[in-house]
Structures are given as structure tokens and as C-alpha cells.
Amino acid sequence: MITVVAGLEVALTMSVAAADLCAIDALDRNICLPEPAERVVSLSPGATELLFSAGAGAKLVAASAWSDYPSQASELPRVGDSNRLDLEAILSLAPDLVVAWVDGNPRSQLDKLSALGLPVYWLAPRDFSDIARAVENLGQLTGTPERAAGRVEQFRNGLASLARQYRGARPVRVFFQIWDQPLMTINRDELISKTIELCGGRNVFGHLPRLVPRVSIEAVLEANPEVIVTAGEAGGGSRQWLDDWKQFPQLTAVQAGNLFLEPPDLLARATLRTLEGAQHLCQTLERARNAL
Fold it and tell me: Which of these, 195, 206, 198, 218, lies nearest to 270 by C-alpha position?
């Protein structure tokens, strides 16, 4: 009888341990592991960065192209990019967890990995809480929950501080340009737009139905933003995008000199560095207010 009871206790303990290693992914699937993942493959730069933030960087055995932050990520073997993955290379690494990005990885290829029994955890952070939850869940699945929790706490506290600081700020109308030909922007559901709102800005195209809508020059002129922002390298084409708006001196943003270039990775990637991007953007919009 004692042996049976002891066996039941061991089984119960193992069941609880296994339950503790479960997390809901962006496809609303409950991904469970029998033990913390030790060999992880990341299939997007954002996923790679989130894994390092969760304290699991040392467990990464490969990553996708353009995984460049932190610097250690650049040294990882590559297993493809957003267009195509090298499934044979991934399988040869014998990972016990694959982390994918909903908007960046081919679903059909990842379904093949899932069919072969590899746990695939999908990410699709759409807001600040999604980012925090992603880091917590990755920390859970890789056995580094304490490290993940500490980083997430700093992230949440920083965002709360910004919200308090800019809660009463004068609203400014913002056009955020993400491409030039065709001319493209973001709606209110995109994370960058939520960052604009956090800083007291108002996305002039937030009402549009598509996440990344195309707009016309005429629509921008009609919206008459007080600030035009894009993200890119100072020496790249994005600077020219801003200069091109100077041919429309009737725009309030042009009149005030409110044409700004923001650091790309801090806003474009949905990671904990979004806080740093938000701090930078809030300072930019404060400069814009003072120029109006």
C-alpha cells in the first residue's frame, strides 16, 4: 500500500511539474513540455531577442537570418529567413522547442515540424501586454521564469512611468510612414500606433481598417499631420522620405520642422526594447509640441 501511495505521489509531482511547463501561444494552443527546453531554435529576429530577454539565450542552438540582438545572436547558426526555412537543418539540431513568428514564418513549413512532433510556440505580440506575456511564457518553457519575471517587471514599470508622464500632454497629430512607394502607414492596432498614443500622440490614420494600409499623398495632405515620423538609418533612404515632404510647405509638420527619424529596431521589433523606443519617441513628440 505504501509503495502504491508513494508511486501516486511521484506521478502527481511529475504531473504538476509538467503542467507548470505549459504556455498558451499566439494561435491559442497550449504548448506543454515534459521538462524545460534545452535546445531552442528561433525563427525570427524578434523571437531571438525575446528569448534572450527571458534568460534563455544560452539555450539557443540556431536562429533565423537578421537575428542580430544582442550581439551573441549574430554568432548563432542560421536556419533560413522569413521566406523559407531549412527544415532539414532544423531537424538535424534536434530542438526540443521551436519559436516562430505569426507574421514572419511560413505556416505550411512549421506545420510539417509540428507533425514530426517538434513543439512549435508561435508569437504575435500586438501590444505591450503581449510582449510581457511572451517573455514570461518563454521563461516558463525554458526554465528561466525568475529572470524573465525581473525583466518584465522593469518593462511594465517603465511603461507605467511614461503613461503617467505624458497623460496630460497636449495631443499632437502624427503620420507614421513605414514605406514610400507605395506610401504606407499603420492603423491604431499596430504596436507603433499604441506607442504614439502612450506618448500623447494621435495617429491620423488610426481609423483605417487594415493593420498596414496604403494611403495617398492627397490623404496625408488632407489629414495635415503636425508631426511626420519614420524609422530607419540616418544615412539610408528613410531620411529622403522625410525630405520629400518639404515640397508641401502647407503641411503643419513641414512648417514646424517636425520631420523625425526614429531608431528602427526599437519600434519595428515587438520586444522589451520597445520601452526604449517609446522613451525616445515620447521625447521626439515633446520636441514637436514645443515647435508648434
Answer: 195
Q: How far apart are CA 135 and CA 137, in angstroms?
A: 5
The grid coordinates listed for 33 are 513540455
Cis before 70? omega within 30? yes
Cell 481609423 locates to 207
C-alpha cell at 50: 525575446
pLDDT digits (tens, 9 = 90+) for 50-69: 999 999 999 999 999 999 99
7-35 residue pLDDT tens = 333 333 344 344 569 999 999 999 999 99
Helix, strand, coil % in the chain, rounded to nearest 5: 50, 15, 35
Same fold, 19-155 and 168-291: yes
**Domain 168-291, what fold?**
Rossmann fold (3.40.50)
Domain ranges of the chain: 19-155, 168-291
CATH code of the domain occupying 19-155: 3.40.50.1980
- For residues 245 and 247, what is the distance between their CA atoms, to the nearest angstrom? 5
Under DSSP, is residue 35 helix (H, G, I), strand (E, B) or coil? coil
